[in-house]
Fold each of these.
Amino acid sequence: MKVLITGHQGYIGCHAVDIFQRAGHFVTGVDIGYFADCTFTKRPRVDAELTTDVADLTPRDVAGHDVVVHLAAISNDSMGELDEDLTTNTNVAATMHLADICKTAKVPRLLFSSSCAVYGDSHGAHADESFATAPQTAYARSKIAAEQQLLELGDNDFSVCILRNATAYGHSPALRTDLVFNDFVTRLATKNKVHLLSNGGAHRPLIHCRDIARAFLDCAEAAQEMINGQIINVGDDAQNIKVIDLARMICAKRDDSDLVFSKTAGADQRDYLVNFSKLRRILPNFSVNYSLSAEVDYLLDSCDKRPNLADELVAGRYSRLQQLKNRLDF
């Protein structure tokens, strides 16, 4: 199978390249290169590569591929708030351009990386895919808008599947520290403290970034009738967790560590639990391979082996927000 992955240099994209290639598939990568310097360990090499904006792709670029995995995006709440027009153009307009050229080129399948952030506040319920969305940020609003337009474009010949990913965590060749788990772990590694910007009372569903990539592989290889037109929450019921409980679990990994709250810490309005039972029904062979506790140990060990990590964190090497600011001169 020939697979085109947008954002292949990214946090999840690196894992996706490796996983699809290990499964025997030919991988074309598309990436504009904004975060090419965010390298923590060696990235896997793609079989073919296009260094360009998704918005500039043509039908010829995507023709001949069996599936397109669309990961490229302004990829979290803080980045989305930096410039809402940029977020909309990247996450909605460029996504629909990609879908249009895929349909024109008769690419049979498009898998779209969305987010459980679209639920906003589940009011204590475990949100399934039919749960009312309540996006509270520009990022989440852009994902919902793209979802709706993509599903309208799909048909029997052009299969669209939406993967609403839980909050990603864990080691990647293109590490991100602007994710709650990774932020806590890297602060513990370099300062022996975990710092909370909120009171920690909100819930988050979490999933390892490599498990997300594996879900995309399973959707790419599934029968078309199983995934066409579907929205699927991607995560693990056992990894719905309160932020404060996550912080305490991570903090406990090091002796004499401190749990510190920001002076402005208050309630986080983004508070959602998620139901992942549909994922198990659609992809019965899928299961998560990573646990929160074990990954704390692994990522801490990886951080300890990087002698200049503290300086890299101060410089914003692994912060996508800081890198985007640098690129766009904010």
Note: The domain at 2-169+207-234 is CATH 3.40.50.720 (Rossmann fold).
Amino acid sequence: MKQVFGRPRVLNDVVMHYCPGCHHGVIHRLIGEVVDELGIAERTIGIAPVGCSVLAYNYFNLDFVQAAHGRAPAVATGIKRALPDRVVFTYQGDGDLAAIGTAEVVHAAMRSERITVVFVNNAVFGMTSGQMAPTTLVGQKTTTTPWGRDARVHGHPLRVAEMLAALYGPAYIARVSVHTPAQVMKAKKCLEKAFRTQLEDRGFSMVEFVSNCPTNWGLSPLDSVRWLEENMLKYYPLGEFKLPEEVA
């Protein structure tokens, strides 16, 4: 009998620590499938900074490096420049990339570093109990905005994909989701494009995943997906914002 489904070879057969209904596990699988299908496992290096993804190195049978909070793009830059034949990617949440690490990712993008950034945007600081993040929606309640985010006080949510796409340096920028099977398939195609952008030496690439956080949103996994569809996707539209062929 032909096997039509199985665990990606680069994903370890272990139980993940993520909360029930969290999309991190799906995103991990997509990375595993893309790395397997491109045949790049032996030369791929991942960077796991602080956040819910801090233990990602337990789940991937790949070389991994731990980075300080927000510094994954800087660490990735150093590795890629020292070992240009390696495929280097970061795996970062919004509390990491869009807060303490904003300068790191902006300047790595502007320099068009040959790295790939996987950015998981669930609109809160997930690991540290659900505080407001730069991506928290206006009106969204968090542990530090119990009455909802007020734009007059806290500013507006940061759209990272649009911000980086406006820069000259990046080669590929996309925003995807994995909340439906159809979106999972689209997300995988974009992730493959991002890795191919690096493999072809085209420049910096980033895929932003609009994700859920059932625990810190205070919702069931199913309700969190509905909330994502009804609220997150209105402010964070999905699509490809910059393609390699648009870069001179």
Note: The first strand starts at residue 44 and ends at 48.
